[in-house]
Amino acid sequence: MIKHPPNRLRVVRQGRGWTLQELADAVSLSVSTIHRYETGQRPLKVGHLENIAAKLKCPPGDLLRESAQGDIPEEQELLALFRLLSHDQRRQAIGMFNVWLAPSPLPRRARRRRSTALAV
Q: Which of 41, 45, 44, 46 is nearest to 2 (CA)?
């Protein structure tokens, strides 16, 4: 069986919380057709690509990009969710990550407890 170029249809679909059946119903295709598209057993037709992308609310190109090797499911989920955000929401999310990841000075008492806990 010929394997077609990898796509991100499954990652995007799952990131949106859609089941195979829900997507198949939404785009008037069979579950097996969607499954074959996702697994590369069948080439993704342009007309179907555009219809699926419209239903999943993403640019068609997002479905064609190959996932980076080594992506873990949480990274894939986070990226799929990030793509759902508007530009302003993306900026806010990045700001929140910067706050979460910024080193914060601990109160003197907390520092002592933390260093004691780390020593155990």
A: 41
Q: Angle at Cα 83 formed by Cα 55 and Cα 35, nearest 5°?
A: 45
CATH architecture type of domain 9-84: Orthogonal Bundle (1.10)
Residue 53 · residue 62 · CB < 8 Å: yes
Task: Please indicate, yes or no, whether the overall pTM of this predicted structure exceeds 0.70.
Answer: no
Give dist(CA 70, CA 75) in Å, integer. Answer: 10
Tens digits of residue pLDDT in 80-108: 888 888 889 989 988 988 888 877 666 66
Q: C-alpha angle with apex 71: 52 to 98, nearest 5 degrees?
A: 100
Residues 6+ apart with CB under 8 A from 40: 3, 4, 5, 6, 7
